[in-house]
Structure formats: structure tokens, C-alpha cells
Amino acid sequence: MSRTRSSALILAAAVLLAGCTATTEPGSDPQPAASTPAAPAAEPAAGDTISGTGYTYAVPEDWGDPGPVEGFDPDSFAADLDDQDGFADNVNVILSPAGRVELDQVESAGPGELEGGGAADVVVEPRLTVAGAEAAHISAGLASEGTEYLIEQFYLNSEDQTFIVTFSFSPDVADADRQAVTDAVLASWTWT
Q1: How far apart are CA 187 and CA 38, in angstroms?
Q2: 82: burial class by Cβ within 10 Å (0-12, 13-18, 19+)?
Q3: For the domain bounded by 2-24+42-191, which CATH number is listed?
């Protein structure tokens, strides 16, 4: 679990960069207007329910809360407790310190800020609908202490707060398998 803990610390720094300073020029819109994005195409995850500030979500079976991580204080955190490859895939949620950040701001400023924090191959993915509202999605690759991993980061907005939901995966996890996990967890997201 030590590799998961180290990676989570580096990931938290990258997430906070995007949450603190995302700005955009007036009138810019990096994503053209379209119909409502699709919801995750999966059944909700059937594992433990994780609770945070105003929300809950379920994680896959064999995932759960790994306990506190020194120097890392997410709003919620869960990991694959049955890891077999040396990097425990995980999900964490951090509340944006800037409060609510508009999705177009995330999509325009987030990639550059993630790259400035050491991320590579940053891609603004198509938006999706989570718990009835649009969410932004950015994917990237990161490395920490010689360990490479991939992130799928989702930005969910409540009325006055952005919730940054970050999934971290071993690089050997196939795209379809990453999507199966993210879709199942996001399909279970509920506001409380």
C-alpha cells in the first residue's frame, strides 16, 4: 500500500493546482454546446459505500477505505484492498479550495496546470452526466518516486462547490477496465 500512499500525495498536489487557479477568458468555450452528455454506461458499483461532504458513492467489491495517509487529507478515499500488481488502484475526492469552478474553466486551464504539476498525455475527455448534472473529465499520466500511473479525473459541481473525483490506476489497466470502474462508481454517486 505504500506506493498507493505516495502516489496519492503527488496526485493531491496536481488536483489542487487545477482547483485553485482555473480561469478562462470571457466568452471562451473550449467545448462546443451539445446535447446533454450521456450518463455512465454501467450498473452502480456493488461494494462498500463511501461517504463524504454531501455525497456518497459505492466502490467495486474488494475496494474500501485503506485508512489515513500521512500528509494527505482527502474528503474521501478508497482503494483496491486486494491489489496484485504493486499499485493499488484508488479513488479520492477533494473539494476545490476555490469553491465552485465552472466546467469550461476546468477544461481550458486544467490541462496546462496539470502539465505544470508533472502530468503527461493530458486529454480533455467528453463530458458526462453524473447524478443528473454535467461533469468534466480529464485524463493524464503521472509518475511519483519511480512509479507511473494513470488518472481519470472528474469535476462534479454542486450549487457552490466543485468536487474533484480522481481515480488512479496502474498503467497496465486497460482503457476498458478503467472505464468500467469509473462508470460503476460514478453511476452510484448520490448527493445527500
Answers
A1: 11
A2: exposed
A3: 3.40.1000.10
Q: Which has the closest alpha carbon to 119: 21, 2, 18, 29?
A: 18
DSSP 132: T
Helices (H), the chain: 2-21, 103-116, 175-187
Q: Please give the torsion angle defined by the CA atoms of residues 45, 6, 173 and 181, in that order, rounded to the nearest 10 degrees.
A: 10
Task: Using DSSP, state whether 149 is helix, strand or coil.
Answer: strand
Give tens-digit pLDDT for 106-156: 999 999 999 999 999 999 999 999 999 999 999 999 998 889 999 999 999
Domain ranges in the chain are 2-24+42-191
Q: What pLDDT, in 10s, does the model give residues 94-119?
A: 999 999 999 999 999 999 999 999 99
**To which H or E segment does residue 124 belong?**
strand 120-130
